[in-house]
Design goal:
The chain is of the alpha/beta class. The protein has a three-stranded mixed β-sheet, covered by helices on one side. Strands 7-10-8 form a three-stranded mixed β-sheet, covered by helices on one side. Helix 2 crosses helix 3. The protein is about 40% helix and about 20% strand. It is built from six helices and ten strands.
């Protein structure tokens, strides 16, 4: 507006002057806005009327068929229930299916790790019921199992196993100088067996242990046998000599013969 007033002022003063400045304008910025004619208005009205007619038709249909509307709501309710409860139920049933019967494998002679891997394959767990000394099964390996191999068991059940502690080693106690009964009791206390061997002795009283094999404080395996040598005395039989005083020679000989002298 300021430029226009300025140009008018210059035109009044100098009508022939070259006072108009031309500017380059970007014609692309100027766009033609289409006019809204009656055809466009009619088209929009027809679209709006069609939608209204559809809604009116739906409403009129449900008014004429009220049971259809109820059925539709029932179907929607069933679908919602299936989505909310049906899917979780089927997932739970699938995850909690009944366990199957499987054959119990033989895990005796295996390590705990080997048995665990074998039992895992059939979905069975284990528990160590006890640990025992065993001279025939290596330390750390399984001596026995319950239930035994070949039995039918359910998945997720548990098998009890007994683990070997290896061979038990004990020290042989001192036995010399004790009675045989005392020696037998001492050996039983450390899980050793006894073998009694009698022999004569000029020095050791009858019934007393003379010596032993193996010697005292020797390390032995539990269940081994210790030889115990027990005195049976000097071996000389003590007899009473009959009196021959006042007897004839013949009677005296007879008395001594009867006494085995």
């Amino acid at each position: 507006a300021t430029e226009m007033l300025r140009d008018l002022s210059l035109a009044l003063k100098n009508p022939d002057g070259n006072f108009v400045v031309e500017h380059n304008f970007d014609a692309t910025l100027t766009q033609r806005i289409p006019t809204i004619n009656s055809e466009v208005l009619h088209s929009k009205q027809r679209s709006s009327n069609d939608k209204n007619n559809d809604n009116d038709n739906n409403e009129s249909y449900f008014k004429k068929h009220p049971k259809a509307k109820i059925a539709m709501f029932v179907i929607i309710f069933i679908i919602v229930c299936l989505l909310c409860f049906g899917i979780p139920y089927f997932l739970m049933v699938g995850l909690n299916k009944a366990p199957e019967n499987v054959d119990m494998p033989d895990v005796t002679g295996l390590t705990v790790q080997e048995a665990e891997s074998k039992l895992k394959d059939i979905k069975v767990t284990y528990k160590i019921s006890s640990e025992e000394y065993n001279s025939e099964v290596e330390k750390g390996k399984i001596i026995s199992q319950d239930p035994p191999a070949g039995y039918k068991v359910l998945e997720n059940s548990t098998v009890s196993i007994v683990i070997s502690k290896g061979t038990e080693l004990v020290k042989v106690p001192k036995l010399a100088g004790s009675t045989f009964e005392e020696a037998e009791s001492s050996l039983s206390d450390v899980n050793l067996n006894v073998e009694k061997i009698e022999e004569t002795s000029q020095k050791i009283q009858e019934g007393i242990v003379i010596r032993q094999d193996p010697k005292e404080n020797t390390e032995a395996k539990a269940g081994d046998t210790v030889k115990v040598y027990v005195s049976k005395g000097t071996g000389i039989k003590q007899i009473a000599v009959p009196s021959a005083i006042g007897e004839t020679e013949e009677n005296a000989k007879k008395s001594l013969t009867d006494a085995r002298i």
